[in-house]
């Protein structure tokens, strides 16, 4: 046999080995996608509840309860979308170690899906993350790490992924908006419109959501445009977060029209409301699809979170309180303007994750140094009288609509 023939035989064997490997790899990816789609089929539609408002107001407030997903939060949809995006892009295979930076709920949901696919998972979380969330991540087999001395969870997650043999940094803050499919019939906006289609005001005036990555708000805004609806999107933002001041300063323009030097952007401090709010504007936040933003004081978020438990008997987390404060403020404005219709807000995660902090009066007073009394009074007086009187010393400006 000649040298050339030997080389051809070797090439043929090598090609067969590579083809076999690629076939096994592709087969695993196909099965992984089937598993994720099966999960979506089982849990696509979550319940919608009606918040009790006086019937004579002619305004209905609906709460889309995303806390009942298998992993317990709104982030279940996003985590599944991120895994599907990574699988279809070729970033994940059967040997991948997945890493994420998260304040907790995204990490819980990604740990759920990593276990579903048999993949190792590590979450880098802030030191302030509730112990309940840390325990949930671990219960799904995930590892929990804290950031380095600079407190940057994203930088640490990226470093760990790079140093891992086959690591992948999921990077929710960058990829959430492109992983979500706003044209899909099972995204959160599509299910909202479908589920209230038989109500007396089936086309909501507003949908209210918070911004952590910005992916959910972006998906809702895009779907509204895609489905040619008149519904508007209001993003509520906790105090000190960078989303609200940047949106106001730039009049809701896309980032490409912003000053290119990041040092000119308005920056905030870390949010005290877990799950939403960021010190810098994330790539997944697209301000052009946001019609309005409301900045919500931390004490108002926690007061509203507790009001939800009192009035609806549902225990939710503080980001849901942020949503409820913003939604009721919009209801108050509609009522003052003589406008009728419906408003929809999202319930983000389960309150059981916050029993040792946000539902603990001592923790709120000593750790956050917050007084909930004036905000609780604002909410209770509004529901009793229809008049909205926000505490003047801490009132925040209403962002003009884009």
Please tag this protein with its features.
alpha/beta, Rossmann fold, 4-stranded parallel β-sheet
Overview of the molecule:
With 402 residues, the chain is α/β, with parallel strands linked by helices. The chain has two domains: 47-73 and 180-394, Rossmann fold; 75-176, 3-Layer(aba) Sandwich (Rossmann fold). It has 13 helices and ten strands. It has a six-stranded mixed β-sheet, with helices on both faces. The protein has a four-stranded parallel β-sheet with strand order 5-4-3-6, sandwiched between helices. A hairpin with a 7-residue loop joins β1 and β2. α2 (75-89) crosses α3. The radius of gyration is 23 Å and the shape is globular. One of its GO terms (cellular component) is cytoplasm. It catalyses: L-cysteine + H2O = hydrogen sulfide + pyruvate + NH4(+) + H(+). The modification N6-(pyridoxal phosphate)lysine is found at residue 75.
* Mean pLDDT, all residues: 88
Structural class estimated from helices and strands: alpha/beta
| Helix share bin | 40-55%
Number of helices: 13
Overall geometric form = globular
Tell me the major beta sheet. Answer: 6 strands, mixed
What name does CATH use for the topology of the largest domain?
Rossmann fold
Pfam family, one: PALP
Modified residues (N6-(pyridoxal phosphate)lysine): 75
Main location: cytoplasm
Catalytic activity: L-cysteine + H2O = hydrogen sulfide + pyruvate + NH4(+) + H(+)
């Amino acid at each position: 046999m000649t040298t050339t023939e030997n080389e051809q035989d070797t090439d043929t064997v090598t090609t067969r080995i590579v083809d076999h490997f690629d076939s096994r790899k592709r087969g695993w990816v196909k099965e992984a996608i089937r598993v994720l789609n099966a999960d979506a089929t089982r849990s696509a539609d979550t319940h919608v509840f009606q918040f009790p408002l006086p019937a004579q107001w002619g305004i209905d407030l609906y709460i889309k309860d995303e806390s009942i997903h298998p992993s317990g939060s709104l982030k279940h949809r996003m985590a599944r979308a991120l895994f599907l995006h990574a699988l279809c892009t070729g970033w994940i295979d059967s040997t991948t170690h997945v890493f994420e930076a998260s304040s907790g709920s995204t990490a819980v949901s990604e740990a759920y899906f990593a276990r579903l696919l048999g993949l190792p998972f590590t979450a880098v979380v802030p030191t302030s993350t509730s112990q309940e969330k840390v325990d949930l991540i671990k219960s799904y087999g995930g590892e929990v790490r804290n950031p380095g001395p600079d407190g940057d969870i994203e930088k640490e997650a990226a470093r760990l992924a790079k140093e891992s043999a086959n690591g992948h940094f999921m990077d929710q803050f960058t990829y959430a908006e492109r992983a979500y499919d706003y044209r899909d019939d099972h995204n959160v906006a599509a299910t909202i419109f479908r589920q209230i289609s038989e109500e007396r005001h089936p086309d909501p005036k507003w949908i209210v959501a918070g911004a952590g990555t910005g992916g959910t708000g972006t998906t809702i805004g895009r779907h509204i445009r895609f489905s040619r609806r008149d519904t508007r999107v209001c993003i509520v933002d906790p105090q000190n977060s960078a989303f609200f001041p940047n949106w106001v300063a730039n009049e809701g323009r896309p980032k490409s029209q912003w000053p290119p030097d990041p040092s000119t952007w308005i920056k905030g401090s870390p949010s005290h409301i877990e799950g939403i709010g960021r010190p810098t504007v994330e790539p997944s936040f697209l301000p052009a699809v946001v019609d309005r933003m409301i900045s919500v004081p931390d004490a108002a978020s926690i007061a509203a979170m507790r009001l939800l438990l009192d009035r609806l008997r549902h225990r939710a987390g503080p980001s849901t309180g942020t949503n409820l404060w913003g939604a009721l403020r919009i209801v108050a404005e509609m009522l003052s303007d003589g406008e009728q219709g419906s408003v929809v807000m999202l319930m983000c995660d389960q309150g059981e994750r916050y029993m040792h902090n946000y539902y603990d009066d001592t923790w709120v007073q000593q750790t956050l140094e917050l007084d909930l009394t004036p905000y609780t009074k604002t909410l209770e007086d509004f529901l009793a009288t229809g008049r909205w009187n926000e505490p003047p010393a801490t009132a925040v400006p209403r962002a003009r609509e884009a």
